[in-house]
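re: ur question from earlier - yeah i can do the single chain one, its not a big deal. heres the input i used so u can compare w yours
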Amino acid sequence: MTMKPFFAALLLATAVAARAQQVPAVPASAGTMPQDKTQPSPRLNPVVAARAAHLSTQMVRDLHLNGYQASRLRDINADKLAKLDAIEHQYATNPQAAEEQTKLLTKTSDQQLQAVLTTDQYTDYFDARKRYAQADKDYARSASASILVNSVQNPTPVRANDAVISPTKTSKTTRPAVRQ
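and the output i got, formated as tokens:
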């Protein structure tokens, strides 16, 4: 008879341990907002993604980051540059407000980077921060110029049936003779 309580206790302990290992579900009221499908997501913007990838590659190389640090840095830069692009568009007519919002964004991303980088790496990053910002601006300027050239050279279809305006091929056609 002593085996039944033992097995019952073992079964209960196993169930409690299994429940403790499960990931708790996030309640719907945890502050997550559904994405507005009518607005383009800044994280999906290919120009912003290219800017973030270029900046991250340069920083990974300069700061000698390991795989985990590089992954986190790429996420931080992608988020920062997506928000920076939104700030540039939103405050295009108000440079002072854009500068203020940019400073707040930089402060937030610096705190995130400080949590990821070692003290020496963060010191190197902080010393080179203006250089990274200038490199990003230069890349963004050249990327926008190349996008303009590409859009002129390879126009996107105006209609949904993928019709593109292009020069016609000249061929010799016979026209009926015009009677007078």
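Residues 129-153 form the longest helix (25 residues). not sure if urs matches, ping me
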